[in-house]
Amino acid sequence: MSSGTAQRRDAVLGLRDCGADVMSESKTTAKRGLTVTAIAAEGVCGAVACGDCGIYQLCVLLGLQSGDLSLLEFIIRRKQTFRRGEVLYRMGDPLEYIYAIRGGSVKTYITTEDGRVQVTGFHIAGELLGLNAIENRRHECEARALETTSACAISIERFEQLARQQPAIQYEMLKIMSGEIRHHQDLLLLLGKRNAEERLAAYLLSLSRRFAKRRYSSTEFNLSMSRSDIGNYLGIAEETVCRLFTRFQEEGLITTRRRYIKLRDLERLKAIAHEPGRCTAAAVTLSSC
User: Fold this and answer.
1) What is the pTM of this model?
2) Could you tell me which of 220, 212, 241 has the C-alpha nearest to residue 119?
């Protein structure tokens, strides 16, 4: 098969996949009117629309809006689906792709030489995975799907080729990296200066903002991560996490049902987390653990 024929075949397949994705997004948008519990019951992993994805502006630069998908097809591999528990990449693997999560969620973690595990992040639809491997060209953590998860795989080699030719692409990557740095700064503050209840309140508010940014409900969502993983990430014991969830519910701050959670009083959660714009007079501060 000639190279020209192969390229045309790949372009057709890419366009076919793109059409399927658009149809999928339409169905997802229609289902967003349903409650979170109904969506969970249907087993829908909640694919994010392209416009709400973390690399949308990059895709625009690569021809998404103009209809010329040749550059986009050049760097983005077909959408991949990972089952719950499946590994996207392992610690030490060479960097080949950056992943843009379209639906589902992923946790990243490091396993030390003596077998201890440290959760380093939870990533939801619309967010990126693998950016921290660009410098050393190897992944420094493991990424595992927490539920059925779909992702676009971006070839780092091909992406860098285009970035060298188009400065606008480099600028968009700088903005994405800046957001990652800000997130990690917030995490350092969370772990270093706050007690257990403040950490959990801040974590729930952070999830709320991240879901809202992707146009999901900011007050009702599923916690795909376990209580143990949440505790590991926040640096508090699993028992403390369970106790705090119970107390938050008793105080009317949240409602939980298995992994479904509803944030019922954002202002009081902000007061506990000491976030700007919090309600101080009406807030009921819970005792420290």
Assistant:
1) 0.72
2) 241
